[in-house]
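User: Before I run my own analysis I want an independent prediction to cross-check against. Here's the chain; please return only the structure tokens and, at the end, one sentence I can use as a sanity check.
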Amino acid sequence: MKLSNFFKLVIAILISELAGFIGSLFVSPAIPVWYEGLVKPAFNPPNWVFGSVWFILYALMGVAAFFIWREGLKRRAVKIALAIFIFQLIINIFWSVIFFGAHNTGLAFMEIISLWCAILATILSFYEINHKAAYLLLPYILWVMFAAYLNYSIWQLEISPDNQPLVISQTLKIKIPA
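Assistant: Structure tokens:
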């Protein structure tokens, strides 16, 4: 591997992992205070699984972006594909802000659907340039499908079946009728 490609690989992985780090700034403080208190479905994995899985997924995203980047930024398709990739990373960060930062599980569910669409757009744009890059994103879209189902389930469990108020934020104490 050429030294320039090695640096591209490292930069692509670091940018992807940076998205995870930024999201974790909202996740980490919310885990013991808010998230632990939520009613969660039986299929909810232990907390340690999430960090491990996301670390691997961000690394795979970085490698996929590197495969596209090394095709040359002079190509219009490469620029577009990388722009879509960066856009989905930003949407990824915002899910953590909405779910863990704002404690809004309903809005986070709608946002994660947008994230899934952005990932699909990324996969399709990557596939046109490099099939391997697209395949590296398949675990990511599958995990986000699972996360969306988990998000939806938590949101539904927040809504009390006996028409008690739905608490949108423990911090702000905003309540709306169920």
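Sanity check: The chain has six helices and two strands.
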